[in-house]
Design goal:
Layout (H helix, E strand, L loop, with lengths): L1 E5 L5 H4 L6 E3 L8 E4 L15 E4 L9 H6 L3 E3 L6 H16 L2 H10 L6 H8 L12 E5 L3 H12 L3 E5 L5 H6 L5 E2 L3 H7 L2 E4 L13 H6 L4 E5 L8 H10 L2 E6 L12 E3 L8 H21 L20 E8 L4 H11 L4 E9 L2 E8 L5 H8 L4 E6 L2
Parallel strand pairs: 1-2, 1-3, 3-4, 4-5, 6-7, 6-9, 7-8, 9-10, 10-11, 11-12
Antiparallel strand pairs: 13-15, 13-16, 14-15
Helix pairs in contact: 3-6
Length: about 375
């Protein structure tokens, strides 16, 4: 029986996919698998029972990835499952930044008891006049699942869209509208675009990427949208640019203590994926990843171990091994099976940085003795008998 712990509420449509082979537990220490959304895991004690963590969402900054990898715990996320929800909020952000909708709504609220509101608003509305987005240039930095949807939607709204992503995948390239112009550097986007939206992960190379140097390259009165990660924008530089008018508006779904109170900031309380559909999609995807991992040993959408698809096992036995990416590991694995008189029908070994993952199909089910011998090999982190 595989014990599953939910650190956050997970949509029932996902949990309903778990068969009788799985059992929900409220005890984190007993869990073989964990489903999580936003709960912080950095200070939690990771037991030897834990084999996988599935984040129902894309960001994994609440999960200690290296600590998990060192214990042979595979961490999954669900890229693209909430992409449409985020895309729709980005489009709303474009509208709110180009038209003073919020100011107009505030005026109506302030004058709701005015019997002459119908007449007075005709005089007041000029204070909330804005600009249309049709014909304006939108720069999309990062053309992953969300960036592609934003870019495509913007073309349908009549915008001229420019995109940049040095790691653009074949799948996302095929889904991208032909109307989107691809450029080689973010600098081209900074210099050309009226609106700039960023959809990249928080890496050492991207943190603080929207800083004074970047904004100095932008058009006067440019509008910046950040629905990815707060750390991508240098808060002090952004506030200075907003104060000077260099940046007209900053639209963000992840406000900080500094940007939340800055002028010309339009901020939402991290609502991008807060839709019933996104939560359902993330739950279903996360549970399917766990099921494929536990029942077949396959890894898809892991953020700390390599992708590995061995399909459904057709042999008598299958073993999966999380280990360090060091020489001579496979030779030692095969020697253990050979000494036990068991043939290896198929073997897959994938690597990701300093970690590796092996799936071995065998002519017989691995015994506890075999598992113990493989586990004792220096560099092996976790061994699991799939079949």
């Amino acid at each position: 029986m595989i014990k599953v712990n939910c650190l956050n509420p997970i949509a029932a449509c996902g949990l309903d996919l778990l068969t009788d082979n799985y059992e929900k537990t409220d005890n984190f220490a007993d869990a073989n698998a964990v489903l999580v959304r936003s709960a912080a895991m950095h200070d939690l004690e990771l037991s030897d029972n834990l084999q996988a963590v599935a984040r129902a969402g894309a960001g994994v900054n609440n999960i200690p990835l290296d600590k998990c990898a060192d214990k042979g715990i595979v961490v999954f996320n669900t890229p693209g499952a909430n992409a449409n929800g985020v895309k729709e909020l980005v489009i709303a952000g474009l509208m709110l930044a180009s038209r003073d909708i919020k100011g107009g709504m505030n005026w109506v609220d302030e004058n709701k008891d005015n019997d002459n509101i119908g007449k007075d608003m005709e005089k007041a509305k000029k204070a909330f006049a804005g600009k249309e987005i049709q014909g304006k240039k939108l720069g999309v930095i990062g053309l992953g699942a969300i960036g592609v949807l934003v870019a495509n939607a913007a073309t349908h709204l009549g915008m001229e869209v420019i995109g940049c992503d040095p790691y653009l995948s074949v799948q996302h390239a095929l889904n991208l509208s032909r109307s989107v112009k691809i450029v080689k550097s973010n600098e081209e986007i900074f210099k050309e675009c009226d609106f700039i939206t960023i959809h990249v992960p928080a890496l050492d190379s991207t943190k603080g990427m929207i800083n004074k140097a970047a904004m100095d390259m932008m058009k006067d009165g440019a509008i910046v949208l950040n629905f990815a990660r707060d750390v991508l924008v240098n808060d002090d530089d952004m506030i200075a640019a907003l104060d000077s008018g260099k940046i007209a508006k900053y639209v963000t779904d992840i406000p900080t203590a500094k940007t939340a109170k800055a002028k010309n900031v339009i901020a939402f309380p991290h609502l991008g994926a807060s839709t019933a559909e996104s939560e359902d999609n993330c739950a279903i995807m996360a549970v399917n990843e766990l099921v494929d991992f536990f029942e077949n040993g396959n890894i898809k959408n892991s953020v700390n171990y390599p992708a590995c698809d061995a399909g459904v096992c057709g042999s008598a036995g299958r073993v999966s091994i999380c280990h360090k990416n060091v020489p001579n590991m496979l030779t030692q694995f095969t020697a253990v099976f050979s000494d036990a008189g068991i043939n290896i029908d198929n073997m897959i070994d994938k690597t990701r940085g300093e970690y590796a993952y092996s799936v071995i199909d065998t002519s017989a089910t691995a015994s506890d003795e075999i598992v113990s011998k493989i586990s004792a090999i220096d560099g092996v982190l976790k061994v699991r008998v799939i079949k």
